[in-house]
């Protein structure tokens, strides 16, 4: 909010000092030193945990790409279920899961290697966290979809209820992840984009 206040006050006020010799910027920095440290610790812990999950997903979906369901034809080397529609779902979902988890790893790694300056907490770090969480959720959802597609390939012709039941249970972890992290995702968007609308220079100028 300090950046938004700077836009609506007289420029001369920004250089004024109080009785202790602090400018508004100096005083703001001094009073938020502990908050800056706490924010850095929280951001690093969150990024580390999420990056661990993203790395596990990337490992699983990468291995799944070379161990396709049904195996390969011994003569041609092509997958046995190549012409099945669920095989296309499996391949596309697995690829998206791999790309999304890799993107998530890069985002969280960039958070861990950030300088953690004051300006980084304004836009850079929240944006990286938001994109990282979005990519992580996408990778989880696509991994689960690829998992469900495998059962549709194997059991769809004989026991159709088996893949439907498994797909239903597979949606549970995705739903839990979305519910548990929804508020964090929304708060990140609010802090990055919506907070600037609390102060509209055209309507709330002080000079």
Automatic annotation (TrEMBL):
Per UniProt, the keywords (alphabetical) are: Membrane, Transmembrane, Transmembrane helix
- Record bears the keyword Transmembrane helix: yes
In terms of superkingdom, the source organism counts as Eukaryota
Q: In this protein, which residues make up the domain named PGG?
A: 40-153
Q: Is Cell membrane among this UniProt entry's keywords?
A: no
Q: Which residues cross the membrane?
A: 46-66, 86-109, 129-154, 160-180
* GO CC field: membrane
Q: Which Pfam families match?
A: PGG
What name has this protein been given in UniProt?
PGG domain-containing protein
* Species the sequence originates in: Davidia involucrata
């Amino acid at each position: 909010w300090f950046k938004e206040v700077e836009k609506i006050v007289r420029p001369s006020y920004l250089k004024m000092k109080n009785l202790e010799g602090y400018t508004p910027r100096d005083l703001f920095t001094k009073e938020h030193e502990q908050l800056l440290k706490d924010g850095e610790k929280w951001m690093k812990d969150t990024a580390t945990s999420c990056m661990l999950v993203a790395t596990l997903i990337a490992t699983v979906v990468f291995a799944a790409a070379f161990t396709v369901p049904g195996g390969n034809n011994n003569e041609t080397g092509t997958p046995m279920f190549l012409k099945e529609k669920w095989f296309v779902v499996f391949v596309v979902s697995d690829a998206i899961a791999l790309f999304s988890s890799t993107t998530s790893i890069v985002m969280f790694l960039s958070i861990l290697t950030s300088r953690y300056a004051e300006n980084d907490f304004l836009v850079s770090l929240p944006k990286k966290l938001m994109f990282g969480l979005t990519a992580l959720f996408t990778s989880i959802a696509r991994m689960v979809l690829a998992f469900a597609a495998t059962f549709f390939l194997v059991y769809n012709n004989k026991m159709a209820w088996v893949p439907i039941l498994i797909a239903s249970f597979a949606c549970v972890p995705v739903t839990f992840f979305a519910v548990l992290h929804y508020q964090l995702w929304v708060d990140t968007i609010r802090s990055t984009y919506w907070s600037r609308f609390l102060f509209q220079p055209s309507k709330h100028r002080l000079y």
